[in-house]
Amino acid sequence: MKFDILTLFPAMFAGPFTESIIRRAVAGGRLELRLHDIRDYARDKHRVVDDAPYGGGDGMVMKVEPLAACIEAVRQERPRARVILTSPRGRVFDHALARELVHEEELIIICGRYEGVDERVRDLLVDDELSIGDFVLTGGELAAMVIVDAVARFIPGVLGSPGSAEADSFSDGLLEYPQYTRPVEYRGLRVPEELLSGNHAAVARWRRRKSLETTLRARPDLLRQVPLSPEDQEFLRGLGYQGEP
């Protein structure tokens, strides 16, 4: 899968894209990442990429000419690419959307900055807008990192274990169950006996119930969107859940 990131600050990606799973995915040829400095497409000697907004107001706006030129140059090499703008007005990025985007061969992600981009960039060149949440960032670079990381996990071969992505939190709409490893006991706290039993059915039942319990405690809103079996419903009612049966 091929990602092209359009940014004013390409150096910000050095750590997240050159360490851990992303680094291994790039080295293994499963993921291609290219960074493009939007300033390289400015027409003046000072490489100006922003200007004051028409109508007045605080802040600056990303100019249409350099950004459009950058997008169009990249699209010449990535003709099938879906162009995404990181933006507060976009769809909220989540697990399901990450799973959707992995089916794209090529993605171009524009990192918004300042007060936003000239609206004509949206009108002419953007296919989709994504937001990673209802909060303010200094720019879209962090959002782009989040999107790449989440999508990359679904690329076959990127994770060490083929089932890891499907077992993560949100994969079935619930938060993940607690995890343990050696030693069996630490400072008086033991690993639950179900996980030590060797009984796969007991382990699966314990994990499902802990996942339900964790979700009820931390994100009860998610339970309204998850298909619940009669056994799930009975277990949740025992914990005081008042949702629809």
UniProtKB/TrEMBL annotation:
Key words of the record: Cytoplasm, Methyltransferase, S-adenosyl-L-methionine, Transferase, tRNA processing
Binding site for S-adenosyl-L-methionine: G112, I132, G133, D134, F135, V136, L137
InterPro entries reported in the protein's UniProt record: Alpha/beta_knot_MTases, tRNA_m1G_MeTrfase_C_sf, tRNA_m1G_MeTrfase_TrmD, tRNA_m1G_MTases_N, tRNA_MeTrfase_TRMD/TRM10
Keyword Membrane: no
Catalytic activity: guanosine(37) in tRNA + S-adenosyl-L-methionine = N(1)-methylguanosine(37) in tRNA + S-adenosyl-L-homocysteine + H(+)
UniProt function note: Specifically methylates guanosine-37 in various tRNAs.
Name under which the protein is recorded: tRNA (guanine-N(1)-)-methyltransferase
Organism, as annotated: Geotalea uraniireducens
Lineage: Bacteria, Pseudomonadati, Thermodesulfobacteriota, Desulfuromonadia, Geobacterales
